[in-house]
């Protein structure tokens, strides 16, 4: 019998250039804090899932065992490290959900972390290239180059997405001002985001610096339990639906690279499992690694018709006072993007909204939220529907 999983506790470090000396310190910073926030003793935890991309960011591998270093009581608990590019954090969450739903655990600790700023920028770029299809895409030089290519395709088909991308950047930077964990808490405004300048240089193709997420350090953690254990928690958020759908690693192998078909299916399947529609959602935390990614997701999810995302943005529909606030946390664009931590952070941000603990970010109405986290250029696509439990 499938048991409904619930999130009952969480922890989050600030994102950005953090003083924590390594990924072990980041993991330690959130592991015990999340268990304590859940009102549990470490001995209540049946399993641990850790999401760290690494792939050269650190010489320390075997990250799953680092939780036991931070919490000696968990040294003997089954711990698994997972990696799925920029969706690593959600992959860890889904591993925990599988364990709960299978009835093989009652309480699971999930940790996502990454230390990215300890190495030089060219080396960071080299590591990130491992998340694309090297044989066909490495020649573009960077992940920004891949998404710049998508922006060019969009321009050829629908017209230049420049204004829509700048509106997304401005929206998310404004939202990030209210997020105490965000890497950049500064309202840059549309004009700055739309204008190439010495402070906002061109990165690749149509993408300016304000179109690209930030290289960050950070960690987030959560405790997921079965429904019975959640009933005694001080607050809980139910996981009502979820889906993981993959697409071709090589963007050129897809019938329509602009359709984000894997993302579209994952989002639709998660809503169907939750018996919900797009208009039942009160907020969406989505993966804006580049502004063109958020723009394409609007069209993949049905928020906008193909080619009409800029019109939806101009209407204010996805602003915090619109009918579907998107990235009230500031998104990856403002909050930062420490790869392994991102998916966990997105779920924590949504959960905080649903229990009324989002502080200055808090929406007036927040009963049901969706989270979308993707690895690569919409290759590994994870969608989750969360609901408050009153």
Task: Explain what this protein looks like in three dimensions.
By secondary structure, the protein is an alpha/beta fold. It is built from 14 helices and eleven strands. The chain has helices spanning 23-37, 66-70, 88-101, 121-128, 134-137, 143-158, 162-176, 189-194, 227-230, 261-273, 291-301, 309-314, 331-335, 339-354; strands at 6-12, 47-51, 79-82, 107-114, 202-204, 207-208, 218-225, 237-246, 283-285, 368-375, 380-388. Helix 7 (162-176) packs across helix 11 (291-301). It is globular and about 55 Å long. It starts with 5 loop residues before the first strand and ends with a strand. The mean pLDDT is 96.
Short précis:
By secondary structure, this protein is of the alpha/beta class. It has helices spanning 23-37, 66-70, 88-101, 121-128, 134-137, 143-158, 162-176, 189-194, 227-230, 261-273, 291-301, 309-314, 331-335, 339-354, and strands spanning 6-12, 47-51, 79-82, 107-114, 202-204, 207-208, 218-225, 237-246, 283-285, 368-375, 380-388.
Cα separation of the termini: 24 Å
Q: How many separate helices?
A: 14
Radius of gyration: 19 Å
* SSE ordering: EHEHEHEHHHHHEEEHEHEHHHHEE
Mean pLDDT: 96
Give the amount of beta strand, in percent: 15-25%
Helix/strand/pairing category: alpha/beta
